[in-house]
Write the structure tokens for this entry.
Amino acid sequence: MSTGLIIALIVIVAVVVAVAAVLTLRNRGSRHGTGLKRRFGPEYDRALARHDGDSRAAERELAERVERHGDLRVRPLESAERERFEARWTAAQERFVESPRDAVAEADRLIAELAGVRGFPADGHYEDQVSALSVHHAHHVEGYRRVHRVAQARAHGAQDGGAGTEEMREAMVEARALFEELVRPSRHEDGRHGGRHTGESDRATPAARRGHHTPSLLNRRQAKES
């Protein structure tokens, strides 16, 4: 076999190996992106929009969140703690009828406190707390952002904070979904304490099983601007 043929074969093999490596990396990146999109859901779309459609930048940001907070161990709530948080949330909802802005501010404080008690970053580290919540509760963390924006606008003296009564009502309803995820027992806690009966909803909190409802939020006409 001539030297030229040997060199040609070496070049061909090198090219094939390089192409295979590129395809492998692209395939891994695609699976990685698909996994992040499935895990983060609407949070993936928000990250994508924040990075002007740059999927690599969005996925890098989300991967960094998982790196920082993915191993966070959530602390279980005692029954008395759970009941206190539920009672405070019910009171905030009822307050919405007469003072929607005060109710939203209380919801903001309550979620921050509850998340801290459960082991998420606390002590005023809002951005870090939201980042951690987005890893474990990606489908509902936006409600927390919405009530926080209204609460912060009021704290800084804004008259309306850019939010009307209906927008605040929607923010409260959306934030309630996160609250219920944070306040309900995890599957691990259910198993440790005997669990629920087969067929009972994982999302049902003790208050919900007692027929808990939100009349002040559902009755839109009664809410007054505050």
Summary: Residues 191-212, 221-226 have pLDDT under 50 and may be disordered.
